[in-house]
């Protein structure tokens, strides 16, 4: 299931976002001390460096952040 959302790490086009996996959700919960990490979405755009690291709640880009490089 993908949805097209603007990503602040990528260019001005909309990019496919998908639900985070378990490891990504666990990292979000730990990093932000929240419990809704499983409901977050990750940008699925591919850059020359690898997968984009941007994650955010579906409707709250201001709350988003970039996962660490280990999630590439
Ligand atoms: Zn992105």
UniProtKB/TrEMBL annotation:
UniProt lineage: Bacteria, Bacillati, Actinomycetota, Actinomycetes, Kitasatosporales
Protein name: Uncharacterized protein
Organism: Streptomyces griseomycini
């Amino acid at each position: 299931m993908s949805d097209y959302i603007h990503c602040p790490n990528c260019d001005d086009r909309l990019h496919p976002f998908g639900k985070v996996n378990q490891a990504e959700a666990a990292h979000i919960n730990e990093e932000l001390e929240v419990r809704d990490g499983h409901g977050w979405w990750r940008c699925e755009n591919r850059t020359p460096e690898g997968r984009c690291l941007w994650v955010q709640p579906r409707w709250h880009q201001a709350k988003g952040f970039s996962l660490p490089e280990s999630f590439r």
